[in-house]
Give the backbone structure.
Amino acid sequence: MITETPDVAQALGVAERRWPGVPRGQLLKRLIREGAESVRGDTESVLEDRMARILAAAGGFDDCFNPALREELREDWPA
């Protein structure tokens, strides 16, 4: 059961304009489905953008460190 708060009422009003004549229960289902698709799309876009930025930066700092530094640091680590 969903309480019809002002936010829910507003969302149902928007849904009724988009899907006129559809029962309120079905409107809620459609809103939930549409919302999930929107969030999924946004999430995938964010992840794709993040990965593209990581790949673009990969290897961009190779010249910042002495190539022997990794081996020097490993000597300090316990085996």
